[in-house]
């Protein structure tokens, strides 16, 4: 982390990269939240009218954006790929998941699948490649 700003020649490139990723993530997340928010019915008619005709609106999105920014920052510090919100959440909303319980259930299923990963790795890649 400290080496990003030690070389004077790379400071501008580092700042431009951080700026580009920040804006990319912000607009991606906003679009996803607006799309999934409309699908889930979280926005009132007043919110939708302000989105379409106003200069901004105030809703529950500020908490979600804060949580996304914290997750992205912590992920970056630990060196993971960019943590972001995916539009595939609309599929979960369409199936009836509108609370955080769906995310917790998905996380538990992923943890459970980690137990079976060594067993599944016994199957050679050539056997599953056609699928």
Q: How would you characterize the overall build of this protein?
A:
The protein has 6 helices and no strands. It starts with 10 loop residues before the first helix and ends with a helix. With 131 residues, the chain is mostly helical. The chain has one domain (2-98).
Structure summary:
The protein is an all-alpha fold.
Structural features:
131 residues
The helicity comes to 55-70%
Morphology? flat
* Major sheet: none
Distance between the termini: 41 Å
Order of helices and strands: HHHHHH
Q: How many beta strands in the DSSP annotation?
A: 0
Using only CA atoms, what is the Rg?
A: 20 Å
- Spans of at least 5 consecutive residues whose pLDDT stays below 50 are none
Portion of residues in beta strands equals: under 5%
Mean pLDDT figure: 78
Subunit arrangement of the protein: single chain
**Into how many domains do the coordinates divide?**
1
- The number of helical segments is 6
Secondary structural class: mainly alpha
Task: Spell out the blueprint of helices and strands.
Elements: H1 11-40, H2 45-53, H3 61-77, H4 89-94, H5 101-120, H6 125-128
Helix pairs in contact: 1-3
């Amino acid at each position: 982390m400290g080496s990003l700003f030690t070389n004077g020649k790379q400071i501008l490139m580092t700042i431009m990269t951080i700026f580009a990723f920040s804006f990319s993530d912000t607009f991606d997340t906003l679009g996803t939240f607006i799309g999934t928010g409309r699908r889930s019915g979280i926005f009132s008619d007043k919110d939708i009218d302000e989105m379409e005709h106003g200069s901004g609106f105030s809703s529950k999105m500020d908490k979600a954006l804060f949580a996304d920014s914290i997750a992205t920052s912590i992920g970056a510090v630990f060196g993971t790929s960019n943590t972001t919100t995916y539009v595939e959440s609309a599929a979960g909303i369409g199936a009836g998941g509108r609370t955080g319980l769906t995310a917790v259930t998905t996380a538990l299923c992923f943890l459970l699948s980690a137990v079976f990963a060594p067993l599944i790795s016994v199957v050679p890649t050539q056997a599953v490649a056609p699928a």
